[in-house]
Amino acid sequence: MPVINRIAAFSDDMTAWRRHLHQHPEITFDCHNTAAFVVDRLRDFGITEIHTGIATSGVVAIIEGQGAGPTIGLRADMDALPMAEETGLDYASTIDGKMHACGHDGHTTMLLGAARYLAETRNFAGRVALIFQPAEEGGGGAQVMRDEGILDTFDIAEVYALHNAPGTPVGQFYTTPGPIMAAVDTFSIQIKGVGGHGAMPHETRDPIVAAVSMVQAIQTIVSRNHYAADALVVSVTQIHTGSADNIIPEGAWINGTVRTFDKRVQDMVRTRLSEIVAGQAASFGVTAALDYEVGYPATVNDADKAAFAADVAREIAGDAGVVADAGPEMGAEDFAYFLEDRPGAYLFVGNGDTAGLHHPGYDFADDTAAAGASFFARLIERALPVSKV
């Protein structure tokens, strides 16, 4: 079956919801207006069990089906990014420096669409837990919601989520068993030397030379300390230092990201960074301090749940429209925290030929919403079938 007819019938409403959210982006845990909009829609659908204020602005709503059964969680992230929009759209962000550049406005809309359909039909046994989460883009809102106990409080047995995918045709899906998104860590290095006149470098201990040498040495972690068949990314993304052409500065600062799937690889990188920073600092006569911050863990799909979810997606997109073994990506996702505690799956749904995620020209494709909402709805109906007597 393609998009569910009832969902297609209110697709204009979903477009209106999504564009409203796009115009009013909120970031990190400060998604109070977004949450209020979500709650108003849920009440319009006749959903009465709604819990707010989780992880500051998160929402969990429960839809009861026909008779007893387990509870399945469906999650959508609500937060935007701290960046300026450059789309020129009529419904562009109205808030300077904030933009839905990752499609979380669309994710929220897809889950609202599924909620409306499921609340109308109740063609399932058990319960659905609708999880509207803040702070995916930073702050680990999923971890906070998990640590506040939503999985146990609402007796959630399985969890699923969707993310849009620019470059994949609208309405097509892909996922993979096992690891699908990487763990993400960040590191920064503060270097302190002795500044002075650019014409008299012998009187200084130059932090710029030390920083450049450290960055070059960091590149050897992947090329010389790591088994090539294991996935690893170590990227230096920032170097800040200096103020004028004739001044050797006193300090420099380096920043970067580490993406891994294996804890042994993660530990190796952390050790080598410490050794490189200490060794390079000593060789240039400067001091340097490494700050290594462990971030989101790897997002690991349950193999059976991923296969089931892919089969559900085939109902919407057809056999040719679903890739069930796409392999892992090096991006990161805090849905990982839910999957650490419960079986489930994370999937991508095509957003068409649009600008990439986190780009100032990005926009969620509204046609994607009906496909995503239909996927969520059919997943519930198939996972929690009503007994036939």
Explain this structure:
With 389 residues, the chain is α/β, with parallel strands linked by helices. The protein has two domains: 5-180 and 299-383, Aminopeptidase (3-Layer(aba) Sandwich), CATH 3.40.630; 183-294, 2-Layer Sandwich (Alpha-Beta Plaits), CATH 3.30.70. The protein has eleven helices and 16 strands. The protein has helices at residues 5-9, 11-23, 32-44, 104-121, 141-147, 150-153, 207-224, 263-284, 303-317, 336-341, 367-383, and strands at 49-54, 58-64, 71-77, 127-133, 156-166, 173-174, 178-181, 183-192, 196-197, 232-241, 247-248, 251-260, 287-294, 299-301, 322-323, 344-352. It has an eight-stranded mixed β-sheet, with helices on both faces. β1 (49-54) and β2 form a beta hairpin. The model has no long low-confidence stretch (mean pLDDT 97).
Please give a quick description of this structure.
The chain is of the alpha/beta class. Helices cover 35% and strands 26% of the residues.
Give the arrangement of secondary structure elements:
Blueprint: H1 5-9, H2 11-23, H3 32-44, E1 49-54, E2 58-64, E3 71-77, H4 104-121, E4 127-133, H5 141-147, H6 150-153, E5 156-166, E6 173-174, E7 178-181, E8 183-192, E9 196-197, H7 207-224, E10 232-241, E11 247-248, E12 251-260, H8 263-284, E13 287-294, E14 299-301, H9 303-317, E15 322-323, H10 336-341, E16 344-352, H11 367-383
Helix pairs in contact: 2-4, 4-11, 7-8, 9-11
